Amino acid sequence: MELSALTHSELIFIDPPHRTPEAVIGEMSAALFRQGLINDKAMFIDSVLRRESEGPTALGESLAVPHGNAARLSRPHLASPCFASPSCGRVLRGTRRFSWYFCWRFPQKKQAVRICNY
């Protein structure tokens, strides 16, 4: 699957004003909702924050990949802000600064595995 099939310009944010992980997740979720890619913004935000509370989704190298669950979604998608200067986020031990966040959503685990294995 090509990246262009997962996102479009309304889901890419260059140096957004929001700096905390919660605010970034909220803005990405609002954009996903406006595009009709999630059907319940509050439920999606809750699922992303719940997943973050189980353990951070930081990958290192200034990259964070928060993700959540949404019912009745027809296709996978990606929303991403890119910061001119890094913002702070929680990692396994303490906090780290991030320049990129990617908010993934896949309708089914099987599809997520297939896409990630390309």
UniProtKB/TrEMBL annotation:
| Alphabetical list of Pfam families matching this protein | PTS_EIIA_2
The source's domain of life comes to: Bacteria
* SUPFAM superfamilies linked to this entry: Phoshotransferase/anion transport protein
Organism encoding this protein: Citrobacter koseri
Domain (PTS EIIA type-2) ranges: 5-118
Q: What is this protein called?
A: PTS system 2-O-a-mannosyl-D-glycerate specific transporter subunit IIABC
Instruction: Look up the signal peptide feature and give its range.
Output: none
